[in-house]
Amino acid sequence: MTTSPPRTPPRPARRRASQGRTALYFLAPALLALVVLRLLPAAMALVSSARHHSLVDGTTTFVGLGNYTDLFSDSQFWQSVRVTLLFSLVINPLQVLIALGLAVLLGRRFAGVRFWRSLVFAPIAVPPAVSAVIWGILYRPEGPLNAILGALGIPPQPFLTSSEQALFALIVLMSWVGVGYWMMFLIAGLQDIPQECYDAAAVDGASAWQRFFHVTLPLLRRPLAFVLVADTVANFLVFAPVQLLTRGGPDGSTNLMMYDVFRRAYSVGDINFAQAEVVVLVAITLAVVVVQFRMMQGKGEE
After folding, report:
1. Is the peptide bond before 158 cis (omega within 30 degrees of 0)?
2. Percentage of the chain surpassing pLDDT 70?
3. Quick one: which of 215, 188, 187, 213 has its CA closest to 199?
4. Sign of dihedral through CA atoms 152, 244, 95, 78?
5. Most buried residue, 44, 123, 206, 250, by CB count within 10 Å?
6. Which DSSP string do the residues of the chain spell out, in sequence order?
7. What whole-number distance in Å separates Cα of residue 239 and Cα of residue 173?
8. CB neighbour list of residue 137: distance below 8 Å, 6 or more residues apart
9. Inter-residue contact 236 to 284 (CB < 8 Å)
10. What is the dihedral of CA 199, 201, 203, 207, to 10 degrees?
11. What is the rounded distance in angstroms from the CA atom of residue 218 to the CA atom of residue 285?
């Protein structure tokens, strides 16, 4: 009776190649979506930004960096950059700090905590256009907010009709919309922190504030970095409230870059010029995100 020789196990290189193909099959739909929905439009925008379409004779010509040269010499563009950076400088830390405070408060277990989480999270389920309409009613001169201020003895405020208050009125609106969404990410991060870390700190005599600063914040670094970066990108793309409530006014005080792109593309009719501003907006966003990653990076990760 003959016995067949034992099968030799597959070589490590062949096994790795098989695993790589399997992983590629699973990643293929996501990679295809990334190429079609992200990379290809970005490449098309970059190419389009180097062209100019004449509305007089309908011809399209290659102008290279001409659109960027004209853009950087446009005072209205620089005003939109300043407004966007001021908007981001105020709203990003404001939303993250409020979301963190709510996450710490509502991350605990007590009666009715799910109801309060749902209540804070609810605004994100409302479309941005609907939220803008709601706050537009609240901000009216004869609206509920001024009625409350009048009951407190405070004179009526112009809100959206004031060049000094309109941007901050939008910040309040967008914070009401976004804080609950970012809170949920931070609650998930808090729940991943082992209870043993808090127990050890309590045994060492650490107070509640010391546990927060020396245990919670260091172990929550990665979720905080994600929330800060994602919040920054989202706020650079704010459009609907500006379009519905202020249209960039008064006096350009709410002319965020995303709205300025829309205005140039569809009000002025210069698509190629707007594409150049889109490229600049993406570059500014990436630069801010890189700086944030460097600031949030721990010393042990460098």
Report:
1. no
2. 94
3. 215
4. negative
5. 123
6. ---PPPPPPPPHHHHHHHHHHHHHHHHHHHHHHHIIIIIHHHHHHHHHTTEEE-TTT--EEE-TTHHHHHHHT-HHHHHHHHHHHHHHHHHHHHHHHHHHHHHHHHTS--TTHHHHHHHHHGGGGS-HHHHHHHHHHHTSTTSHHHHHHHHTTPPP--GGG-TTTHHHHHHHHHHHHHHHHHHHHHHHHHHTS-HHHHHHHHHTT--HHHHIIIIIHHHTHHHHHHHHHHHHHHHHT--HHIIIIITT-STTTT--HHHHHHIIIIII--HHHHHHHHHHHHHHHHHHHHHHHHHH--GGG-
7. 13
8. 143, 144
9. yes
10. -110
11. 26
Tokens of 251: 């006096």
Q: Which amino acid is at 69?
A: T
pLDDT tens for residues 102-112? 999 998 888 88
For the residues 40-57, what does the mean pLDDT come to? 85
Q: Of 5-9, 30-34, 148-152, 250-254, give the lowest mean pLDDT range.
A: 5-9
259-268: string of b/e by CB count within 10 Å (b at 16+)?
A: bbbbbbbeee
